[in-house]
Amino acid sequence: DGPSIAIVGASGAVGQEFLSVLSDRSFPYRSIRMLASERSAGKHITFEDKDYVIEKLSEDSLKDIDIALFSAGGSISKKFGPIAVENGAIVVDNSSAFRMDDEIPLVIPEVNPEAMKHIKLKFGKGALIANPNCSTIICLMAATPLHRLAKVLRMVVSTYQAASGAGAAAMEELEQQTREVLEGKQPTCKIFKQQYAFNLFSHNAPVLSNGYNEEEMKLVKETRKIWNDMNVKVTATCIRVPVMRAHAESVNLQFEKPLDEDTARDILKNAPGVVVVDDRTSNHFPTPLDVSNKDDVAVGRIRRDASQDGNYGLDIFVCGDQIRKGAALNAIQIAEMLL
Ligand code: 2RA
C-alpha cells in the first residue's frame, strides 16, 4: 500500500485541486490527513466516498506522514515544513519560501526531473522539494523544449494572470464585481483595492527597489535555477487580468543557435504536457477558457521574431491552468516521482 499523505491548506483552491488530481491520477495513497488553519478546522470534506474532518495544523499533525503537500502560504511552510521534514516526511511546497534555497530542488517534472533524483520515499529520510511559481511553470513548459535544442540567451515574458493566483476569495470577488458593475453598482474591492472586472492592472505583488514586482522577479530567478543557467537574460511584466483560473503568457525567445518556426512547432507537438493550438487560417490560438481544468499547457502564435536576423528569435503564446499545472498537478507529479 502507498504513502500516507498530508494536505496542508486543504480548504484552499490549490488544496481542493490536490484532491482532484490525486483522484484523477489514482495516486496510490494509504491515508490522507486534511490540515488547515483553525478557521477551517472541523469542516468536513468528502473525498472518494469517504468523509474527512479538517484538522487544525499543529506540530503533532505532521507525524507519521510520508508526503506532505503544502499550499498554505510562505509563513506556514517556513514554520511547519522543517517540522514535517524532521518527522521524516517529504514535503512538496507550493509556496515561495524555499524555492531559491541552494539546497532545495525547484522542480517541473517534465523539465528538470534530475534536480530531485537524490530524493526517494524508499530512502526513508525527510526532504523538501519546492514547486515553482505558477507563471514560471506555465512559461517553462513551452520554452524549455526549445531551450534544450537552441539554447535561450534571452527571454521576454508578458503575463496575463488569472484571479485564482490570488486565491478562491479573489475568484469570488471577480464574479461579484462583474455582477455589481453590470447592475450599475459600486464594485466591492476588498482583495485588490481596485476594480478588477472589465479592467486589468499590474500584478498585485509588492514592487521592489529595481521597479520589478515580486512576481516578475520569481520568473527571472526561478528560470535561471530550473535551467541551471545563471547567464540567461530574463525580463518580465506580470499583469492581473479578469480571468478566473488560467494564466496566459506572451513569450519572446532569443536563441544562441538558429531555430525555425516549423522545427519549433514540431518540437512543441512532441513535448510532454504541451499541446499546440496554432491555427492561423481560423485565427484559433490558446485561450484561458480552453485550458481551464486541463492538465496540458497550450502553445500557439509560434512565429519567427521578425525583429531578429535569421532564425535566432521566436514569439510564442502560452496558456495554462494556474491551479492545476501551475500548482496542484505539478506538485503531485513530483510526488509520483518519489514512489
Ligand atoms: C499569482 N503566482 O498568480 C501567484 C500565485 N502563486 O498571483
Automatic annotation (TrEMBL):
UniProt similarity note: Belongs to the aspartate-semialdehyde dehydrogenase family.
GO MF annotation: an example: aspartate-semialdehyde dehydrogenase activity
Subunit structure: Homodimer.
HAMAP family listed in its UniProt record: ASADH
Top-level division of the source organism's lineage: Eukaryota
EC identifiers of the protein: 1.2.1.11
Catalyses which reaction(s): L-aspartate 4-semialdehyde + phosphate + NADP(+) = 4-phospho-L-aspartate + NADPH + H(+)
Domain Semialdehyde dehydrogenase NAD-binding: 4-119
Alphabetical list of SMART domains matching this protein: Semialdhyde_dh
Keywords: Amino-acid biosynthesis, Diaminopimelate biosynthesis, Lysine biosynthesis, Methionine biosynthesis, NADP, Oxidoreductase, Threonine biosynthesis
Active site: C134 (acyl-thioester intermediate), H247 (proton acceptor)
GO biological process: diaminopimelate biosynthetic process; lysine biosynthetic process; methionine biosynthetic process; threonine biosynthetic process
Pfam families found in the cross-reference section: Semialdhyde_dh, Semialdhyde_dhC
Family matches, as InterPro entries: Asp_semialdehyde_DH (IPR012080), Asp_semialdehyde_DH_beta (IPR005986), NAD(P)-bd_dom_sf (IPR036291), Semialdehyde_DH_NAD-bd (IPR000534), Semialdhyde_DH_dimer_dom (IPR012280)
Coiled-coil ranges from the UniProt annotation: none
NCBIfam families: asd_B, PRK14874.1
Protein name (record): aspartate-semialdehyde dehydrogenase
CDD domains listed in its UniProt record: ASADH_C_bac_euk_like (cd18131), VcASADH2_like_N (cd02316)
Enzyme class: oxidoreductase
Pathway noted in the entry: Amino-acid biosynthesis; L-methionine biosynthesis via de novo pathway; L-homoserine from L-aspartate: step 2/3; Amino-acid biosynthesis; L-threonine biosynthesis; L-threonine from L-aspartate: step 2/5
